[in-house]
Amino acid sequence: MCKMSVEEQVIENAKNGKLLTHKCTDCGFLHLSTAYFCLKCGSKGFEDVLLEGTGQVATYTIITVAPAGFEKYTPYAFVVLKLDNSDLRISGFMAGIANPADLPVGTRARITGFDERGIIIEKQ
């Protein structure tokens, strides 16, 4: 049985509405799973922690002219989600957002999946 890469683990957890993070084993500082050393103390020791993929929209950009291959998804928002119970922020794709009235900053949202677009975020 082969072990999944960190990227594969992030994808599989996102499909289940969770976010794989790394917690420093020395100081407890929480990082996204792409960290190789602790930003707070410099340690290289981590333990995996799964967070619920829920939070509030911190900011976003509405895409109306999409890059090649993504035209069928417009309009959409590229969202930065501040996760509950942490200072972490994760970015992802939210469909059907055409103007700022569709997505006020602070809107409750959650990770709902992962596909060719990346992490999928939906309003709660």
Automatic annotation (TrEMBL):
It comes from the Archaea. InterPro entries: ChsH2_C, ChsH2_Znr, NA-bd_OB-fold, Thioester_dehydratase-like. Residues 14-47 form the ChsH2 rubredoxin-like zinc ribbon domain. Residues 49-112 form the ChsH2 C-terminal OB-fold domain. SUPFAM superfamilies: Nucleic acid-binding proteins (SSF50249). Pfam families: OB_ChsH2_C, zf-ChsH2. PANTHER family: BLR3430 PROTEIN. This is DUF35 domain-containing protein.
